[in-house]
Design brief:
three-stranded antiparallel beta sheet, 10 strands
Length: 174
């Protein structure tokens, strides 16, 4: 996959981890992630008849978004998604089905997950490298919940830490 860090013109190594050593970047990422995580997600159902919508607490996604996996409650999961999307440009989750089409959302490391193809029907194909074995696994769009940041191709977000690498190095050097 692409690099996960590199040296700048100032000779300082900047990666997704070290970019947060810059106080301004850390404050901005925390503010954004904390603010988004404070608002619980809702699933809405259209009113029939008439305009508007009501929260649908019976929909399976209502519960999944509040407790996406065994490790994270909803606010923690949302916070993590925003941090990954902000720094890496993307956050990925494996959709685990069972009783419903999505019983669990398990975060995938954005440094190990990438779009590798787009099919004729416009759906995306992903590759995820297992962190323990390094073995690549092919995942299809139906198996991945992907939050894209700023994108130049509409398929994958641009890694913000790469775009701000030089400015962060100057801040860290002073």
């Amino acid at each position: 996959y692409s690099d996960v860090g590199g040296y700048t013109a100032a000779g300082i190594f900047v990666s997704p981890d070290t970019v947060l050593n810059c106080g301004t970047v850390l404050a901005a990422v925390r503010f954004l992630a904390d603010s988004v995580a404070m608002s619980p997600p809702h699933v809405y159902k259209r009113r029939d008849p008439g305009p508007g919508a009501d929260v649908d607490r019976e929909h399976y996604l209502y519960q999944v978004l509040r407790w996406p996996n065994r490790r994270d409650h909803g606010a923690r999961w949302i916070h993590h998604q925003v941090v990954m999307r902000t720094i890496y440009g993307n956050s990925y989750n494996r959709v685990v089905s069972g009783v419903s089409p999505a019983d669990e959302l398990r975060p995938l490391d954005p440094a190990r997950t990438h779009v590798v193809d787009q099919l004729n029907d416009m759906s995306l194909v992903y590759e995820h490298k297992d962190p323990r074995t390094g073995k690549p696994e092919t995942l299809f769009q139906a198996d991945v919940l992907h939050f894209r940041g700023l994108s130049l191709d509409g398929r994958e977000g641009v890694a913000m830490y790469r775009l701000i690498r030089q400015a962060v190095a100057i801040a860290l050097a002073t």
